[in-house]
C-alpha cells in the first residue's frame, strides 16, 4: 500500500495541486470523470510536438520515422499494461468510440459486409444482446442501436438492492439466443467491481461474445485482459493520467481480423480501385485518418508512470480510501449511499443522495469548500431510476488522493443539509 509520504511525493508530480479553489487548497475528488495529469505526461506530449511531430506510417524522413516509433512504442506499452498484444490494441478517440466500433462492426457484419469471416458476428431476429442495468450510456445506447438495426432483442441483468448485479436468473437471461454480453468491469456510479469470471464463463457456455467496459478498472486495478478471457474491451486514457482524445479498443486477434471496420478512408487500406477497397490487418484497419499521435505518446507515458508506482499498491491504497469514504458516509444523517454498504469488491468511489437537497446544490456547496466532485446522472440514467433518484453526488479518489481530502469531503457533506435547511 502507498504510504502517506509516498502519496505526498506523487502529488508533487501533478502541477494542478499547486492551485487553490475558493481560497483553499484544491481537493480533487472527480477522478472518475477525468484524472489529473503528472508532469511526465504533459512533458511527453509537448516534447513530441516540439521534437518529432510528423505523420506516422507515411514517410521515410527522420521525423516521420521517429514519430512512428513513438506512436507504436506507446501502443506496445499500453497493450502490455492491460495484458494484451500490440496488434490487439486499436487507438480510438475514447472508450465510447471503441464500444461503437464493436457494435457497428457487428451491424456491418449483419448487413453482409466482411465476407465469410465476418458471418460469425451476424445478428438477427431471435438473437439477443445482453447488457446490465448499471451500464454507462456508452455501453448501453450502442447496443440499443444494434438491436434496432438487426432486429435482435435486448435484455439486461438487473441490479440488486445492494448495488451489485443480481445473477439469480443469469442462465435464463444469457441463454442460447444470446450473441453478445456487454458489461462494466466496475460501475462508474456505484464503484462495484463485477464478477467478470462468472459472466465470461456463462457467455462462453452459450457462445456469446463478451464486451468489457474497463474505463473504471484500468486506472484503479491490475488488469489482465488475456487472463480475464473477454473478447473485446474498451478504456479511456484521460481517466488514467493520459491526455484527452485518446482511448483504446482491445479485441482478441482472430476477432479483430474478422470484424468489419466502421470508419473507412485513408491509413487503413492496402488497395483502392474505383470499384472497391481492401483493408489492412488490425490494428490499422480500425484507425482511419490522421491518428491521435501526440495523445498516444502521452498515454504511453501515463502507463509508464502507473507501472512505476505499481497497480497493486494503487489498488491497496484505494481499498483503504474506499473504507474511509463508505464508513464516513454511513455516519452522516440524511445521506444515502448508492451501492454496496461495505468496502469489499469496490473502488474508492462513492455516490450519494442527500435527502432534501438536489445533487447540483450539493456539488456547488462542496465546490465552495474547495472540494471538486461530480454531480448528475453520470451517464447512467437507468441505474439512477432503479434506485429512485434522478441524480447523485459522486466523490471518486485516485492514487494522489489524501486521507485529509476525504475527510474534507465528508465534513462538507455533513454540513449540506443544515446549510440548505433540509434537516429541520
From TrEMBL:
MF terms from GO for this chain are: cysteine desulfurase activity; pyridoxal phosphate binding
Q: What is its cofactor?
A: pyridoxal 5'-phosphate
Q: Which Pfam families does the entry link to?
A: Aminotran_5
Biological processes annotated in GO: cysteine metabolic process
Question: Domain named Aminotransferase class V: which ranges?
Answer: 28-409
Q: What EC number(s) has UniProt assigned to this enzyme?
A: 2.8.1.7
Key words, A-Z = Pyridoxal phosphate, Transferase
Q: According to its UniProt record, which reaction does this protein catalyse?
A: (sulfur carrier)-H + L-cysteine = (sulfur carrier)-SH + L-alanine
- Which CDD domains is this protein grouped with? SufS_like
Function according to Swiss-Prot or TrEMBL:
Catalyzes the removal of elemental sulfur and selenium atoms from L-cysteine, L-cystine, L-selenocysteine, and L-selenocystine to produce L-alanine.
Q: Which family does it belong to?
A: Belongs to the class-V pyridoxal-phosphate-dependent aminotransferase family. Csd subfamily.
According to UniProt, the name of this protein is: Cysteine desulfurase
Amino acid at each position: 500500500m502507498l504510504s502517506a509520504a509516498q502519496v505526498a511525493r506523487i502529488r508533487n508530480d501533478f502541477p494542478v495541486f499547486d492551485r487553490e479553489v475558493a481560497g483553499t487548497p484544491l481537493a480533487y475528488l472527480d477522478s472518475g470523470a477525468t484524472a489529473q495529469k503528472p508532469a511526465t505526461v504533459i512533458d511527453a506530449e509537448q516534447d513530441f510536438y516540439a521534437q518529432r511531430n510528423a505523420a506516422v506510417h507515411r514517410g521515410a524522413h527522420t521525423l516521420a520515422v521517429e514519430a512512428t516509433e513513438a506512436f507504436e512504442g506507446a501502443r506496445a506499452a499500453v497493450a502490455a499494461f492491460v495484458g494484451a498484444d500490440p496488434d490487439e490494441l486499436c487507438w480510438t478517440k475514447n472508450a465510447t468510440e471503441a464500444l461503437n466500433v464493436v457494435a457497428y462492426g457487428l451491424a456491418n457484419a449483419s448487413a453482409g459486409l466482411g465476407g465469410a469471416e465476418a458471418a460469425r458476428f451476424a445478428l438477427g431476429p431471435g438473437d439477443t444482446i445482453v447488457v446490465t442495468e448499471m451500464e454507462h450510456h456508452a455501453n448501453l445506447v450502442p447496443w440499443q442501436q444494434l438491436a434496432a438495426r438487426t432486429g435482435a432483442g435486448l435484455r439486461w441483468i438487473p441490479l440488486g438492492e445492494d448495488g451489485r448485479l443480481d445473477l439469480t436468473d443469469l442462465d435464463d437471461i444469457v441463454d442460447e439466443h444470446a450473441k453478445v454480453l456487454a458489461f462494466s468491469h466496475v460501475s462508474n456510479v456505484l464503484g462495484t467491481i463485477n464478477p467478470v469470471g462468472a459472466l465470461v464463463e456463462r457467455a462462453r457456455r452459450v457462445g456469446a461474445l463478451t464486451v468489457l467496459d474497463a474505463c473504471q478498472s484500468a486506472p484503479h486495478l491490475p488488469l489482465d485482459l488475456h487472463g480475464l478471457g473477454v473478447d473485446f474491451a474498451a478504456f479511456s486514457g484521460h481517466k488514467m493520467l493520459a491526455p484527452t482524445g485518446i482511448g483504446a479498443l482491445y479485441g482478441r486477434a482472430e476477432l479483430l481480423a474478422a470484424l468489419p471496420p466502421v470508419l473507412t478512408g485513408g491509413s487503413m487500406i492496402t488497395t483502392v480501385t474505383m470499384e472497391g477497397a481492401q483493408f489492412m490487418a488490425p490494428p490499422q484497419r480500425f484507425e482511419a485518418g490522421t491518428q491521435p499521435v501526440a495523445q498516444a505518446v502521452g498515454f504511453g507515458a501515463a502507463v509508464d508512470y502507473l507501472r512505476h508506482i505499481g497497480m497493486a499498491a494503487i489498488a491497496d491504497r484505494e481499498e483503504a480510501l474506499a473504507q474511509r469514504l463508505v464508513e464516513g458516509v454511513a455516519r452522516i444523517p440524511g445521506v444515502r449511499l448508492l451501492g454496496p454498504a461495505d468496502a469489499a469488491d469496490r473502488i474508492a468511489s462513492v455516490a450519494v443522495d442527500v435527502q432534501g437537497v438536489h445533487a447540483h446544490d450539493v456539488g456547488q456547496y462542496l465546490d465552495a469548500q474547495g472540494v471538486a466532485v461530480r454531480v448528475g446522472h453520470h451517464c447512467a440514467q437507468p441505474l439512477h431510476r432503479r434506485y429512485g433518484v434522478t441524480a447523485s453526488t459522486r466523490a471518486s479518489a485516485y492514487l494522489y488522493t489524501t486521507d485529509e481530502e476525504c475527510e474534507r469531503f465528508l465534513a462538507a457533506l455533513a454540513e449540506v443539509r443544515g446549510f440548505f435547511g433540509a434537516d429541520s
